[in-house]
């Protein structure tokens, strides 16, 4: 009875079911360690800066118009006309480093950004056919930044040559919920174009993304991090990756994104427009290629396969070689395989 094939298969099955308990416990431990790593990354992001999404700049011109109601009342409607730049050049240099919390290390960076471009003369008639009252003196340029707490130092912004003061906050949240703005002097329709430059340093964790809002957007990015993970579409048309870092260049024309060059706030669906902006983002992630927790998690998914294959080899040895293997030996072999993952 004890030497029958069915008996030996039953013993192997019972030992395998028993080994599922330590396998599950070890997998839970790996999951818990991975959660701790992610929590360490969140804490470091809160202290240093979250993954950054940079969108803009856009030119916003507020205006109002009047609507006659049936009861002879005159209603004033407030609105904003938003214009995207004709051309935009973004030059980004990422200085990475590893920040540790306990046993866990997370890649962070400081990005030195320089933006330059131009706006055409803003014409509200492009987005509104009525007779508006345009408040030219309240025009501003806005840049959406996902985590403005990561801005390190002052922001330098010039408009047609002279520097202008930059303040926090956005008047229009189509591009994002937070960012910076600068009041700019513009003239009524027919004057322009307006050239601008912006320089700033920004801290972030793991990834940075830019939204190519201009009619023609060119992005150049360089860093000493040797393991970039490019994201978004299109991918960089020119990139160089070495052990000393990487350089990447993007070129996104106007037809490469799904949003108009100008719009007014009351005539667009903000959620739809925001989704189009998010889908157009391009950027890079600082990848950690050797992650012990990710490797262990992947290996654990094959634990059952390795144990079963080992038992099959031992079983064939019994059948072909005529050597009986004690159930405890099966158990010890199985525990040894479990300890390997631990």
Give a written overview of the molecule:
- The protein contains 5 helices and 18 strands.
- It has 342 residues and is an alpha+beta fold.
- Strands 1, 2, 5, 6, 9, 10, 12, 14, 17 and 18 form a 10-stranded mixed beta sheet that branches.
- A hairpin with a 3-residue loop joins strand 7 and strand 8.
- The mean pLDDT is 86.
* β-sheet strand percentage: 35-45%
Shape: elongated
What structural class do the secondary elements suggest? alpha+beta
> Helical residue percent?
25-40%
Mean pLDDT: 86
Task: State the order of secondary-structure elements, H for helix, E for strand.
Answer: HEEEEEEEEEEEEEEEEEHEHHH
Task: Give the number of helices.
Answer: 5
Main beta-sheet annotation: 10 strands, mixed
Uncertain regions: pLDDT < 50 for 5+ in a row? none
What's the Cα radius of gyration? 30 Å
Would you count the extended β strands for me? Answer: 18
The N- and C-terminal alpha carbons lie at a distance of 37 Å
What features would you highlight for this structure?
342 residues, alpha+beta, ten-stranded mixed sheet, 5 helices, 18 strands, elongated
Summarize the structure.
The protein is an alpha+beta fold and 342 residues long. Helices cover 28% and strands 40% of the residues.
